[in-house]
Amino acid sequence: MKQVEESCSVVAVTGASRGIGRAVAEDLAHHGCWVWLIARDVNDLDQVATKIRQSGGRADILAYDITHIEEAPRIMDYIVQRTGRLTGLVNNAGTTRRGSLVEISPEAYDEVMNLNVKSLLFLSQAAVRVMETGGAIVNIASLNAFDVLKGVGLYATSKAAVMQLTRALAIDVAERGIRVNAVAPGFIQTDFNAALWNRHELREWVETNTPLKRLGVPEDVVGSIRFLLGADSAFITGSVLVVDGGVLPSRLWPL
Ligand SMILES: NC(=O)c1ccc[n+]([C@@H]2O[C@H](COP(=O)([O-])OP(=O)(O)OC[C@H]3O[C@@H](n4cnc5c(N)ncnc54)[C@H](O)[C@@H]3O)[C@@H](O)[C@H]2O)c1
């Protein structure tokens, strides 16, 4: 276990029960952070927390639906009561609903925008209020925030909002000594998109056309998030770090 970094000591991670969020939580705990795992399913979270504790790390769970934004202040207060402070927040939980924007329903719009954008903002707002000695927030955007993959227009719209929200919040909280950045992953294999990667032709296309010649895994994303939470990025705020194996600069899309 490495020494606890001052700027990375107590971090809340949303969507920590699986995929990228789980990998992030495990990585932060491995590097000495006390992690607070947030997702809806208490059993899934328990498994992650147990694994972290068995490896010598420190993890607690908070099982709730983050779209219940009225809970956010109470959640952040609770973490501070238990730990003395909150220094980091990783807004990772996200969802998608496929379909043309011509046909997308108001219900799908609310589901995606409420989780990806609204809950992210109000959780960040609650975190900022308790980060008395400064801190860092990292939001998970997406390649789709830059270029739109056909069929995920709603998701792309939400992630573009995450990117601009990151910049705007960074400006609004800078005077409090809080930094806000985003990581934009490319094609990362998780439960989120498992159905996509079962389509052989699509998987092959991505592997061929990603300059680094492979799909990403959650562990490919964790280092960038730890960096943006930690002291090595002390002069970086309002930035978006793309972690995509080179897809964005190559501007090639599978559809
Ligand atoms: N996997 C990719 O290729 C990829 C690419 C770019 C961006 N992203 C983004 O990365 C993030 C994580 O993606 P993933 O692939 O690990 O997803 P995932 O579906 O595997 O995990 C999502 C996590 O969010 C949690 N969650 C969902 N709704 C919630 C709610 N209402 N309240 C609390 N927790 C909730 C889930 O329980 C789960 O822990 C998302 O924001 C996603 O948009 C993923």
UniProtKB/TrEMBL annotation:
<dbReference type="Pfam" id="PF13561">
    <property type="entry name" value="adh_short_C2"/>
</dbReference>
<feature type="domain" description="Ketoreductase">
    <location>
        <begin position="9"/>
        <end position="177"/>
    </location>
</feature>
<dbReference type="InterPro" id="IPR020904">
    <property type="entry name" value="Sc_DH/Rdtase_CS"/>
</dbReference>
<dbReference type="InterPro" id="IPR002347">
    <property type="entry name" value="SDR_fam"/>
</dbReference>
<dbReference type="GO" id="GO:0016616">
    <property type="term" value="F:oxidoreductase activity, acting on the CH-OH group of donors, NAD or NADP as acceptor"/>
</dbReference>
<dbReference type="InterPro" id="IPR036291">
    <property type="entry name" value="NAD(P)-bd_dom_sf"/>
</dbReference>
<dbReference type="InterPro" id="IPR057326">
    <property type="entry name" value="KR_dom"/>
</dbReference>
<keyword id="KW-0560">Oxidoreductase</keyword>
<dbReference type="GO" id="GO:0008206">
    <property type="term" value="P:bile acid metabolic process"/>
</dbReference>
<comment type="similarity">
    <text>Belongs to the short-chain dehydrogenases/reductases (SDR) family.</text>
</comment>
<protein>
    <submittedName>
        <fullName>Short-chain dehydrogenase</fullName>
    </submittedName>
</protein>
<dbReference type="GO" id="GO:0030497">
    <property type="term" value="P:fatty acid elongation"/>
</dbReference>
